[in-house]
């Protein structure tokens, strides 16, 4: 590796406003001194984020019986996983969980529902629940309810939801290996729709599904291209 392509020099260029490309990222992952890479990554973390944690928590508001065939997901109705299944969470239980999360210092709270999306009646119940949580807590509100159209995205924003979550799960090239009942583009369209409605977006992926380092880097760059503000990384 050239001196100018050391982890420290690359970190300095990023702090000056440059973006890393796929070839450089792959070279770093495969060839760089690992300690030097970790040190540079930590320097970038401190530069951009400081020493602060922003705590986000979720409530599993509807579990199981999902029609989609995501191969990693225990909530898909297509697999026998033994996962707990139930319909929409009861109001009192959700409120108590929300209050407990705030008491433990959580900054953001999301209601997460299994399934392709939520229908009109389910959304009506969720909107009322969000309104009550908003009244009783000071947490920022997020949502993860599958795919969105413009109307539903605008309803979410009007209900006080400031961030929408929809994981890409893996990079575009290998997405069909992970799921065939919807596409990578379907997820991207939902993120774009949420952003156009005024919400920030949260999207990440899963490590441990047989992907290569190049796949992981491709996903990271795709998320960067989409302007995703919050990136969860799940490890199987």
UniProtKB/TrEMBL annotation:
Residues 48-236 form the Radical SAM core domain. One of its GO terms (molecular function) is 2 iron, 2 sulfur cluster binding. The keyword Transferase applies. It catalyses: (4R,5S)-dethiobiotin + (sulfur carrier)-SH + 2 reduced [2Fe-2S]-[ferredoxin] + 2 S-adenosyl-L-methionine = (sulfur carrier)-H + biotin + 2 5'-deoxyadenosine + 2 L-methionine + 2 oxidized [2Fe-2S]-[ferredoxin]. Pathway: Cofactor biosynthesis; biotin biosynthesis; biotin from 7,8-diaminononanoate: step 2/2. InterPro entries: Aldolase_TIM, Biotin_synth/BioAB, Elp3/MiaA/NifB-like_rSAM, rSAM, rSAM_sf. One of its GO terms (biological process) is biotin biosynthetic process. Its cofactor is [4Fe-4S] cluster. It holds the Pfam family Radical_SAM. It is an enzyme of class 2 (transferase). Its EC number is 2.8.1.6. Keywords: 2Fe-2S, 4Fe-4S, Biotin biosynthesis, Iron, Iron-sulfur, Metal-binding, S-adenosyl-L-methionine, Transferase. This is biotin synthase.
């Amino acid at each position: 590796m050239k001196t100018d392509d050391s982890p420290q020099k690359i970190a300095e260029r990023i702090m000056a406003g440059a973006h890393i490309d796929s070839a450089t990222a792959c070279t770093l992952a495969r060839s760089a001194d690992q300690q030097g890479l970790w040190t540079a990554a930590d320097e970038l973390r401190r530069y951009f984020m400081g020493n602060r944690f922003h705590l986000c928590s979720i409530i599993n508001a509807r579990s199981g019986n999902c029609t989609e065939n995501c191969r990693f997901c225990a909530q898909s109705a297509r697999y026998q996983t033994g996962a707990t299944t139930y319909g929409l969470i009861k109001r009192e239980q959700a409120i108590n969980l929300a209050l407990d999360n705030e008491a433990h210092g959580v900054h953001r709270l999301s209601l997460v529902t299994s399934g392709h999306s939520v229908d009109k009646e389910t959304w009506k119940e969720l909107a009322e629940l969000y309104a009550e949580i908003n009244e009783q807590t000071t947490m920022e509100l997020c949502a993860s309810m599958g795919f969105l159209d413009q109307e539903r995205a605008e309803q979410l924003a009007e209900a006080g939801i400031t961030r929408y979550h929809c994981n890409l799960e893996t990079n575009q090239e290998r997405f069909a290996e992970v799921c065939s009942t919807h596409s990578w583009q379907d997820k991207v369209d939902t993120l774009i729709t949420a952003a156009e409605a005024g919400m920030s977006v949260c999207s990440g992926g899963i490590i441990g599904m047989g992907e290569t380092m190049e796949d992981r880097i491709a996903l990271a760059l795709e998320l960067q291209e989409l302007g995703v503000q919050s990136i969860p990384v799940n490890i199987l």
